[in-house]
């Protein structure tokens, strides 16, 4: 009885395993084919509407003016436009049998032409219904594909807004009867049903023929594998013939797995580097926890997938794996990044290796990923600091050399001005000389401040107090621009060791840049918090964002995208903050730009 139950169960299982996938595949194929057909219809209709838009070389008013009918009655204008456009729409309709096309005029609120005209001319001159989707197409200026009852009947209708000189003058449409589409779908379904039915019958018959011989072996193998899944030390009883070879292979596999699984998995998952293994076809077979952390993809998302699909668009890793699998070339120290994994930008160093068996057979490739983000940031910071130091030394020497001649020029100009009569024309030029010399002196002061920002004494400065004093300086300008100032102080008593005067200069430079970026008003947010022993001051504006390629350059001396300005403001601010052991970070946020000043915190002495 028990054997009989096993036999029936096995037969049903085999039939289910062979037939059900065919049925499921057929259903999936059917749905996919139906969807593909509908999408192909939509793309075709949209393409026709775009073709009609391009074919209309002018606007409707120009056509009427060319015929001298700009002041004619609505009916006369409709008929004139129909005569001028009917041939065009008929040609397009003739090129696409079964498709209805036409133009609708927004100003005349009427169908101007409907091809093929021999079948649809009765609709010319009639307006569309108030709730017709064509009105939304004209008002929203977006193309749309709608299925449902409309002027022609139950149709799939693609509509495309026609714009001329920045104004929507109407829309073009292309539609096809759903009854025609349903006929095509019905024929496709019948073919798929026939193939699936034949496949199911063949699979069921083949399954029945195989059951008699395999049922007992499969039951024993099933039981043995079940035991092995629970305990790799279990071994199946030896048998003779082909089943014995299968049992022996399973026992050997269990021994090998027991010896290597723990060792290999422990090593791979303990590594801080991401390790990914692929077979010779490019299918991923191994994936450790570090790879998940670096790429943001978990094990379930990666195992069994083709690397070309998984890493689509990521050129460095695709190129490295392609060279390894197709050309047998390994890669060392290639860079991949910045990679946005779970909202964090990572810079990855990758290397590939050929995966070989003990018999030197090529089994696939292995790629190792190392997170070098911190190294990258340190390199960039060090390089910028070196550049700033070199430019600072040059700036100091230039400023010192320039100041003495400027003082002499100013003094001589003032002496000349005193000797000139009050109404002498040259007094205007001496005044210009003095003003320009003062401007150059201020520029020299900026250079000196850039070269030696830490000459001021380090005292305990309350960040909130310095910010309040700085915000007072820009409050009136912000109000005139319609800018709303908001401040959120996480710790009113947070303090740092710095010069309040220079710290105020840092905040003022950043705030002035924010005001200049917010010409149309908005919100300017100033926030402070203490985190990991540092005081963070974030200034976020709603102005235009900074180009990504400029984010690392905004702190470079003399770098500016403005027509006026020296480009020293942010560079001086960065030098000041670095002199106090901190740094300034810039990044684009969802709306605007955020500058964050990071300084080591100093606790208030009570």
UniProtKB/TrEMBL annotation:
Pfam families given in the database record: HATPase_c, HisKA, PAS
Keywords noted in UniProt: ATP-binding, Coiled coil, Kinase, Membrane, Nucleotide-binding, Phosphoprotein, Transferase, Transmembrane, Transmembrane helix, Two-component regulatory system
InterPro entries registered for this protein in UniProt: HATPase_C_sf, HATPase_dom, His_kinase_dom, HisK_dim/P_dom, HisK_dim/P_sf, PAS, PAS-like_dom_sf, PAS_fold
Record-annotated Histidine kinase domain positions: 397-603
Residues annotated as transmembrane: 6-30
Chain coiled-coil ranges: 31-91
CDD domains given in the database record: HisKA, PAS
A molecular function GO annotation: protein histidine kinase activity
Cell cycle listed as a keyword: no
EC nos: 2.7.13.3
Signal peptide residue numbers: none
SUPFAM superfamilies referenced in this protein's UniProt entry, alphabetically: ATPase domain of HSP90 chaperone/DNA topoisomerase II/histidine kinase, Homodimeric domain of signal transducing histidine kinase, PYP-like sensor domain (PAS domain)
Name listed for the protein in its UniProt record: histidine kinase
Organism: Brevibacillus ruminantium
């Amino acid at each position: 009885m028990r054997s009989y139950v096993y036999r029936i169960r096995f037969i049903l299982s085999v039939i289910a395993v062979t037939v059900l996938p065919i049925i499921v595949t057929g259903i999936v194929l059917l749905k996919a084919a139906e969807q593909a057909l509908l999408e192909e219809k939509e793309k075709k209709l949209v393409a026709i509407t775009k073709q009609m838009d391009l074919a209309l070389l002018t606007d409707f008013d120009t056509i009427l003016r060319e015929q001298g009918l700009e002041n004619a009655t609505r009916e006369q204008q409709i008929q004139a436009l129909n005569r001028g456009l009917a041939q065009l729409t008929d040609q397009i309709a003739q090129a696409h049998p079964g498709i209805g096309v036409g133009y609708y005029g927004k100003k005349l609120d009427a169908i101007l032409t409907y091809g093929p005209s021999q079948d649809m001319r009765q609709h010319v001159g009639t307006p569309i219904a108030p709730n017709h989707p064509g009105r939304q197409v004209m008002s929203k200026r977006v193309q749309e594909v709608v299925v449902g009852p409309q002027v022609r009947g139950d149709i799939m209708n693609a509509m495309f807004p026609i714009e001329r000189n920045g104004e929507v003058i109407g829309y073009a449409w292309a539609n096809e009867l759903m009854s025609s589409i349903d006929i095509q779908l019905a024929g496709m379904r019948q073919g798929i049903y026939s193939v699936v039915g034949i496949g199911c019958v063949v699979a069921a018959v083949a399954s029945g023929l195989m059951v008699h011989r395999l049922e007992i072996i499969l039951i024993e193998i099933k039981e043995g594998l079940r035991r092995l899944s629970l305990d790799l030390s279990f071994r199946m009883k030896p048998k003779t013939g082909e089943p014995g070879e299968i049992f022996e292979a399973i026992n050997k596999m269990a021994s090998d797995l027991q010896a290597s699984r723990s060792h290999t998995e422990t090593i791979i998952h303990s590594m801080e580097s991401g390790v990914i293994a692929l077979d010779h076809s490019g299918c991923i077979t191994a994936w450790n926890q570090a790879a998940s952390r670096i790429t943001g993809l978990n094990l379930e998302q990666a195992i069994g997938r083709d690397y070309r699909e998984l890493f689509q668009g990521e050129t460095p890793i695709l190129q490295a794996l392609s060279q390894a699998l197709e050309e047998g070339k390994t890669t060392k120290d290639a860079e991949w990044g910045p990679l946005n994994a779970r909202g964090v930008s990572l810079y990855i160093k990758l290397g590939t290796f050929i995966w070989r068996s003990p018999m030197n057979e090529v089994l696939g490739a292995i790629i190792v990923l190392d997170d070098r983000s911190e190294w990258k940031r340190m390199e960039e910071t060090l390089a910028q600091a070196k550049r700033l130091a070199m430019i600072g030394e040059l700036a100091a020497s230039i400023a010192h050399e320039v100041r003495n001649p400027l003082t002499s020029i100013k003094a001589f100009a003032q002496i000349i001005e005193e000797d000139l009569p009050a109404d002498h024309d040259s007094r205007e030029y001496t005044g210009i000389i003095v003003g320009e010399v003062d401007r150059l002196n201020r520029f020299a002061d900026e250079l000196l401040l850039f070269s030696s920002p830490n000459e001021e004494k380090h005292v305990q400065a309350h960040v909130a107090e310095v910010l309040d004093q700085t915000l007072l300086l820009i409050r009136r300008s912000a109000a005139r621009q319609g800018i709303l100032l908001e401040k959120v102080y996480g710790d009113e008593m947070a303090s740092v060791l710095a010069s309040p005067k220079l710290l105020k200069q840092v905040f003022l430079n950043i705030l002035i840049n924010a005001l200049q970026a917010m010409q149309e008003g908005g919100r300017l947010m100033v926030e402070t918090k203490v985190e990991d022993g540092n005081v963070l001051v974030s200034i976020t504006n709603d102005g235009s964002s900074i180009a990504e390629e400029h984010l690392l350059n905004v702190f470079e001396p003399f770098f500016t995208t403005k027509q006026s300005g020296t480009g020293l403001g942010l560079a001086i601010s960065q030098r000041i903050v670095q002199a106090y052991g901190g740094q300034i970070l810039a990044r684009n946020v969802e709306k605007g730009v955020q500058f964050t000043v990071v300084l080591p915190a100093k606790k208030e002495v009570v």
